[in-house]
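B., you asked whether I could sanity-check this one before it goes into the benchmark set. Here's the sequence:
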Amino acid sequence: MRRLRFKKRGQVWIETVIYTLIAFVMIGLVLSFARPKIEELQDQAILQQSTEMMKQIDTTILTMGAAGNQRILEIGIKEGNLRIDCDDDQMIFELESQSIYSEPGKEITDGNIVILTEKRSGYNLVSLRRNYSERYNLKFEGKEEVKIISKASTSYKLTILNEGEGTDDRIIMNMSVS
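And here's what the prediction gave me:
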């Protein structure tokens, strides 16, 4: 009688362990399929927010008005980099993503923003670009340089100052970040 009782207890523990292992395998399978899709959706959301940020900066620059006007924008960069290229008078946001935001290799426009997705090995490089060279001369803290603003947990304060027309009849927009 005692032997039978010990066998049943052992059998219950073995069944419990087997069922637990089966549950872990099932959870692992679900996560292996769901995780890439979740990451893709997160990248899509980040790219949508970044497009809105670029449009906000563009609208601010275009509506600055007279020389001496200054605006301060709060911009949040959760992933990717914002490059202020004062040499070429353009702003570019770049993100390495698993997501395909637009047709790879073809530029599309969203308002004044040019969107390009380039296939790389293992990921896609999505860039959002706005060229100001026809009408504006961008400067960063008074210098013609390239400034890269990287991802951060807190928002940046982008200050844009309209310094009026320069010698080449383009409006000088001086920027700084804090």
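One thing to flag: The chain has one domain: 2-177. Otherwise nothing jumped out at me.
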